[in-house]
Every structure is written in structure tokens, then in C-alpha cells.
Amino acid sequence: MPKVTIALENPVVTHDGDVRIVTVREPKARELFEYGEPFTHARNPDGTIYSIELDGVMKKYISACVDLDEPFLAQLTLSDGMAIKDAILGFFTESRLKNSVKSAMPSS
Questions:
Q1: Which of 31, 39, 47, 107 is 20–30 Å from 54 (CA)?
Q2: Going along the chain, which residue ranges are E strands?
């Protein structure tokens, strides 16, 4: 299963010592079915489409996919928190791209 490793700007102090690196794993299909996607789409008046992150759903993915207990997430810097969110969103973007390439290929 794919993972992303993030070197933290500032270490997180836990009962077991300082944590300087966190790992974010790819969400599982079961989590997708339970939580839904962490974003939705909307349309501007000019017709262009944009994404809106769903914070409540993102929190569920962070709790499930980051190897750091939730109480310690409060110690993360803004930059580290954004890197974690970007990693999770990246898994969805990569999967969507992979599936669109598969569906565009002719079947034999």
C-alpha cells in the first residue's frame, strides 16, 4: 500500500519521545465507502469547476491514515498539517487519474 513520509518542521513530543517523521498511508476502499471523498465540486458563474475540501471528512482520513495519535496532532505546525492534507488529497487525485486512464484504454 502506498505511503508518504513527511519530515516534520518541529518535532512532536509524545510519551515515547520526539516524533520527527510521520507516515501517511493511502486510504482503503472501506474508508472511502464509510467517509466519502474529502472534497466536493462546485461551479463558478462562468462555468468553471472548482474543488471544496470537506473538513469533517478530512479529519476522519487524518485520524485513520496518519501514524500519530490524534491528541498529538495539535502540536503540528501549519505547514506540517497542510503537508498531511496534501498527501491525503494526493492519494485521491492519483487514484482518480489512474482510473480515468484505465477507462480510456480500449478493451480487448
A1: 47
A2: 3-14, 17-25, 39-43, 49-53
- What is the pLDDT, as a whole number, of residue 99? 84
Please give the pLDDT value at position 108.
61
Q: Are 33 and 48 in contact (CB under 8 A)?
A: no
Neighbour-count burial for 18-48, b at 16+ CB within 10 Å, e otherwise: ebeebebbbbeeeeeeebebbeeeeeeeeee
Q: Check pLDDT > 80 for residue 102.
A: no
**Cβ 45 vs Cβ 57: under 8 Å:** no
Contact in structure between 23 and 15 (CB atoms under 8 Å): no
Residues 6+ apart with CB under 8 A from 38: 53, 54, 57, 58, 61, 88, 89, 92
pTM above 0.70, yes or no: yes
Cell of 20: 520527527
